[in-house]
Amino acid sequence: MMNLQKLPIGIQSFETIREQGYLYVDKTRHVHRMLSEGMFYFLSRPRRFGKSLLVSVFNCLFQGRKELFGGLWIDEHGKWDWKPHPVVLIDFNSIPGSTPEELRQSIAFTLTQIAEHDGIILKANILEIQFKELIIGLYKKTGASIAVLIDEYDKGLIEHLGKGEKGIDTAKINRDILRSFFGVLKDARISPMLCFVFLTGVSRFSKISVFSELNNLRDLSMVETYSDLLGYTQEELEKYFNAHIRRFAEISRDSYEQTVRKLANRYNGYRFSKKDTRVYNPFSVMNALNNSDFQDCWFETGTPFFLVNLLKESQYHFSKIEGLEVSRTIFSTFDIEHLSPEALLFQTGYITIRDIQEDIYTLDYPNQEVKTSFLELLLHSMTEGSGAEEKSKFLRLAGYLKRENFNAFFETVSAIFASVPYDIQTKRDEAYFHTLFYLMISASGADVLSSVLTSKGRIDLAVIFSDKIYLIEFKCNQRADTAIAQIEEKKYAERYMQSGKRILLMGIDFSTEKRNVSEWKVKNGGVTKCKFDSL
Q1: Which of 1, 161, 468, 474 has its CA 20 to 30 A from that of 18?
Q2: Is residue 287 within 8 Å of residue 330, measured between CB atoms?
Q3: In this structure, which topology does domain 384-535 adopt according to CATH?
Q4: What CATH topology corresponds to 14-226?
């Protein structure tokens, strides 16, 4: 085996990465541009995307640690003076905020620790005044302007979402605390003592919400020139990880090109601006390369369960996520009082920009890792209370469809529907059955498209295999024949006639009384297979 450079999985310290010889994808060109273009910045990205590492880069930079940047772009081309500056680094990942009082005390404790490290005594017991004391004290002691770095500012907000009215009330109070705290940075006396301010987070709460007192922040979250500030482009992946990809290919007995395609399908696809730049999630792709195995690592560590709870509370129709069309306003009007499911899904990394036409943004899952894992989690949340055996049955569904074993397919579907506890079901209408059916098939690994637009209407579901395509129509308390007739009448198959694949028509009728499939029919070139009252 070739001797490969170590991958910094879970390492967020730039100092550790550089001193201990871990691989670092050089992003200092962007860092230098930020320093050249302005002073107050905010960046939103999903978890495990490298925000904390970027904060660490700025921390080392303002400390004047030139030795850590040898060979990087900023050292060779940046013309940086490497003058040390005091740094106030507040990492909200390590600041508890289960109650507003705990949040206040935790921030105050952090400020006190920073002050004591630099030999400064904070006399006030009011949080905002302590912050001012710290900055003024550092400025007087060193004579140098201060860099303020705040990582994951919104942790004390989003951890309370999806917990009912009590959680929302706590989030609102915490928001007010943060609004007043961050407002110190724009104080007329404090601002001239600063050289750089950078805040990161998952959520882009509107400026009138959290940042009304700090309204001079430049939000880089959807700026084209910074679209690849975090994450790895395809070019970066093949440049920096070439040897790791070749080892993966050797172990899996695939070609280099096949391995690259599989990595892209599994982990690439995040897009954060109008510029069509796609990036990989760093944590996922590094784990895959390190283990020479395709794993869903980011999802296991980055799942915001508050999001799942909010989607369930709002009875969101998950099947409409793919191909969802929205305006740009959803990316900038987010606030605690007006939680947008689409904005939350985008900011947490579960959907991304697929296309932009005339200011209409089409959203979709970024890659197969996110789609399969997220839909499996949603499926389990909707079948809460079912046994583990019942929950795992969905894994067989894609194989049954691929082999056209329809009896086994519908027996499994019916068993899953029957296992759903009655008390967690809400309105058992066509949308409910459609959603749960969609989650089952998608989580089984099949390529599923929901509500596919044609010139004559929308196909409820299309399931695509290498040799065949299923066009599926749902009905509720009607007949499977009616569903098949609609597919034929509206000529849904015309969209796929040029694919060269067999097209199968599937009609499914659900019974609200039985809470399950009551009838199904599959039609293929004049041959019809069907079953009535399948329970």
Answers
A1: 1
A2: no
A3: Trna Endonuclease; Chain: A, domain 1 (3.40.1350)
A4: Rossmann fold (3.40.50)
Tokens representing 141?
A: 């002691």
Which of the four pLDDT bands, split at 50, 70 and 90, describes residue 416?
Answer: confident
Q: Which of 339-353, 418-432, 497-511 has the lowest mean pLDDT?
A: 418-432
> Domain ranges in the chain?
14-226, 234-302, 384-535
How far is C-alpha 506 from the geometric centre of its chain's CA atoms? 33
Identify the residue whose tokens are 């003058």. 83
Q: Look up residue 270 and give its two tokens.
A: 């995040």
- State residue 344 phi and psi, 5-degree precision: -65, -45
| DSSP letters for 183-226 | HGGG-TTTGGGEEEEEEEES----TTTT-TT-TT-EE-TT-GGG
pLDDT the model gives residue 534? 40
Mean pLDDT of 509-532: 78
Sheet of 87-91, strands arranged across: 87-91, 146-151, 194-201, 40-44, 218-219
Which residue reads 């036409």 in tokens? 357
DSSP state string for 256-278: HHHHHHHHHHHH--B--SSS---
